[in-house]
Amino acid sequence: MISKLPRWIEYGAFVLALIAGCVNSIGLLGFKHQSISHLSGTATLLGAGIFNSSAMDIMHLMGIIMSFLIGASLSGFLLSGVSLKLGRHYDSLLAIEGATLLLSIYFLTHGFLFGHYMASAACGIQNALATSYSGAIVRTTHLTGIFTDLGIMIGAKLKGQTFDKRKAILFTLIIFGFILGGFTGAILFSHFTFYALAAPASICILLAISYRLYATHTNPNKIEPN
Length: 226
Known about the structure:
This protein is mainly alpha-helical. It has one domain: Growth Hormone, Chain: A. 69% of the residues lie in helices and 2% in strands. The protein has 8 helices and 2 strands; from the N terminus they run αααααββααα. The longest helix has 28 residues. The relative contact order is 0.21. The C terminus is likely disordered.
């Protein structure tokens, strides 16, 4: 349950959503209008492409999907359990995400499609990193599930059921963070093109450092609620 998560989860979710919104905005503006932080649109393009696109385009879309899957698999390999606890490899994964985004800048600015795959892998890392804690679904790289859950909560409230204010606040922060990230990414891309990815990459690395410092100065034997 979200009520059992540590208080700092709201801040982390907001920052992660901002990162994803920024990356996705840059992707939409620079990757032939393809989304990067989630795969619904990409999978749809792949399905349509089988009918009317070239083999090269189909392979490219498959590469984006597989890269996201590889990134998520890396998170699954480094993390264990579903509860949020200090000492796990959140900082390592954030650092890898940041490094992957920086590498994508190199490839994209040199005209290599591999940069698309690196950016997609970075989003896969992040989405798997924040997906499931203590039975609560927290996804930061897309908003469909967030809006759906929020709508369910509002509908239940209209029937007189209990409204989880903290959960609503968390979802609102994720939505606002993603939109703000999209706005920021658009501005940065207009000035720096693919070098704009340095901004979300830097935030990932700073977040990794902040988490490591926080974990180091917290009692290592303290376990967050399950």
